[in-house]
């Protein structure tokens, strides 16, 4: 190998490693700055209970793999929890489980902030692994320049960074969906036992991370079509070819099915108390089937998903409120929360599609999940966050890398345009640090105006209590009137406050006792979601404050107002 080429390769692979290191450090340095978000303590306790005692029925609206992945570091600490007593504590109200999970995290023998930090690390590591998958796939299909572009877009994506930093199931779903699709791609190129095993296992893991992992099934059907057309040389499917690949597809499903049961230790129901707990949690709701084709808690979780998607959830979009959502919610969320350079590059694919590399397995196995997530999430009635379409981003960035393989007429002009877009994209990532969850692009007027369009987990998930504490210390503020959206106790972060109508401060203080103190305090701290009245019976409860200019925005999610007593 010539010396010049050798040096170029060294520089290239060093830049790839640096991008992955940057991704890791970006996340790790941010998680120290953020408090627990709404669902994190519940996911953590459920995952720990599954790892420690094999309890798979604590709030089984999610399967256990993603939660267990985050809870794994807890096994190395002297964590105290009487898991057997959780059922009586839950009693007849599932909200008690969330309160207990918060106490488990912060009122334990180990410092809660320490547990929170280490439990967030596994998803960050998973993010690095996902980055490697994106790089390998893009390099195999489109070449080295494409692989760099795809990894660059991924490693600096605010939405990816925001969710990789949290203990939720959204990012593990994103990672395993892409990994499973990659192995299906490899299988379409060279069907062999190794790729059959890899595909089956990753799909099985995907299905035990989150139930929307079922969206991978259309990709399996497309794989069958790709393999059959490839071998037969025409659209006409020959009987022998079809049977051969149907057997291959069946083998993948069997391995995935076995993986699901293996995760649950091949137990339909861990113990007799499960039935009692599920009755308390779900009431008269029955599972999809009474046949033990899958673990009981898995079946009940699927049931809950179907019921919840039909029942809906209160949501906010550009000043409007709905319990049934809007068909265009995720389109708008994507257009406002995705960096504009990434949108431009992705749309460029369709403009130059005739020149785009004809790598059909990659195009099909990437575009299909993007379409499925947008279509299905737009049809259901839960519109609370862009995180529900998070899996589309790795596929979009993979396909965007393919632009590097197109031979444009004005190559120099295109090069300058690419450089400009990448600099713009990098500035977006730099300017929002460390508040990745609150990112909004220039179409929304930036993160400072994001609350006008979207709230909840798009912007304000209870993550900025440490920022509020720092603001109070810097400005010598002893106490604030606080309206908080999240699941935490501000006392855990040494915040002295008067309680204002919130969702949810635990435990809820005596409001009457705070009334006099509220009138005498001129500093109000109001979360963006509460400001918009999303979870208030009176949407205009904080309407007075919406007409005022805040003196500060903590992480863009908590607004500070100074009002005369």
How would you sum up this structure, described in words?
Helix 1 runs parallel beside helix 7 (144-155) and helix 9 (170-189) runs antiparallel to helix 10. This protein is 57% helix and 6% strand. It has 23 helices and 9 strands. The mean pLDDT is 89. The strands form 3 sheets. A 5-stranded mixed beta sheet has the order 5-3-7-9-8. The protein is globular. It has helices at residues 3-31, 40-53, 65-71, 86-90, 95-106, 112-142, 144-155, 158-164, 170-189, 193-207, 217-232, 239-263, 273-282, 296-311, 329-337, 340-351, 360-379, 392-401, 411-432, 465-474, 511-520, 528-531, 543-546, and strands at residues 315-317, 320-322, 480-483, 485-488, 497-499, 503-505, 523-527, 552-554, 558-562. It has a domain at 460-562. A hairpin with a 3-residue loop joins strand 8 and strand 9. The protein starts with a helix and ends with a strand. The chain is mainly alpha-helical.
């Amino acid at each position: 190998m010539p010396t010049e080429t050798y040096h170029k390769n060294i520089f290239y692979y060093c830049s790839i490693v640096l991008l992955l290191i940057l991704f890791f450090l970006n996340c790790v340095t941010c998680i120290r700055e953020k408090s627990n978000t709404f669902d994190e303590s519940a996911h953590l306790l459920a995952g720990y209970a599954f790892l420690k005692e094999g309890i798979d029925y604590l709030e089984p609206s999610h399967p256990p793999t993603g939660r267990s992945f985050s809870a794994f570091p807890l096994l190395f600490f002297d964590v105290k929890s009487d898991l057997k007593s959780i059922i009586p504590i839950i009693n007849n109200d599932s909200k008690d489980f969330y309160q207990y999970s918060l106490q488990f995290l912060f009122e334990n023998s180990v410092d809660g902030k320490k547990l929170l930090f280490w439990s967030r690390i596994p998803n960050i590591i998973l993010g690095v692994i996902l980055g490697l998958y994106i790089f390998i796939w893009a390099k195999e299909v489109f070449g080295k320049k494409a692989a760099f572009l795809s990894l660059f877009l991924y490693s600096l994506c605010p939405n990816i960074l925001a969710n990789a930093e949290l203990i939720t199931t959204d990012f593990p779903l994103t990672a395993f969906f892409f990994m499973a699709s990659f192995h299906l791609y490899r299988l379409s190129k060279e069907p062999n036992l190794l790729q059959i095993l890899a595909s089956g296992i990753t799909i099985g893991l995907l299905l035990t991370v989150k139930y929307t992992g079922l969206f991978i099934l259309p990709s399996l059907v497309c794989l069958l079509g790709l393999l059959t057309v490839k071998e037969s040389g025409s659209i006409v499917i020959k009987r022998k070819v079809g049977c051969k690949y149907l057997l291959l597809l069946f083998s993948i499903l069997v391995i995935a099915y076995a993986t699901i049961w293996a995760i649950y230790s091949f137990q339909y129901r861990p113990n007799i108390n499960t039935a009692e707990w599920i009755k308390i949690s779900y009431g008269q709701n029955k599972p999809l089937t009474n046949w033990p084709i899958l673990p009981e808690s898995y079946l009940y979780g699927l049931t809950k998903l179907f019921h919840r998607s039909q029942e809906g959830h209160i949501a906010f979009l550009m000043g409007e409120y709905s319990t049934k959502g809007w068909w265009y919610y995720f389109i708008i969320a994507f257009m406002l929360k995705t960096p504009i350079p990434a949108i431009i590059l992705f749309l460029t694919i369709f403009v130059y599609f005739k020149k785009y590399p004809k790598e059909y397995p990659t195009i099909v196995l990437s575009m299909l999940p993007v379409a499925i997530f947008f279509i299905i999430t737009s049809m259901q009635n839960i519109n609370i966050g862009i995180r529900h379409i998070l899996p589309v981003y790795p596929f979009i960035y993979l396909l965007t890398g393919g632009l590097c393989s197109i031979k444009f007429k004005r190559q120099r002009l295109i090069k300058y345009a690419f450089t400009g877009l990448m600099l713009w994209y990098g500035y977006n990532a730099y300017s929002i640090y460390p508040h990745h969850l609150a990112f909004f692009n220039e179409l929304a007027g930036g993160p400072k105006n994001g609350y006008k369009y979207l709230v909840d987990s798009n912007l304000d998930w209870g993550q900025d209590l440490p920022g509020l504490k720092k603001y109070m210390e810097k400005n010598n503020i002893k106490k604030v009137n606080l309206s908080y959206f999240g699941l935490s106790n501000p006392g855990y972060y040494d915040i002295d406050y008067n309680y204002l109508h919130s969702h949810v401060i635990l435990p809820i203080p005596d409001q009457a006792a705070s009334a006099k103190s509220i009138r005498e305090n001129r500093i109000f701290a109001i979360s963006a979601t509460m400001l918009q009245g999303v979870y208030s019976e009176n949407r205009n409860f904080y309407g007075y404050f919406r007409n005022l200019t805040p003196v500060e925005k903590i992480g863009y999610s908590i607004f500070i107002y100074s009002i005369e007593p």
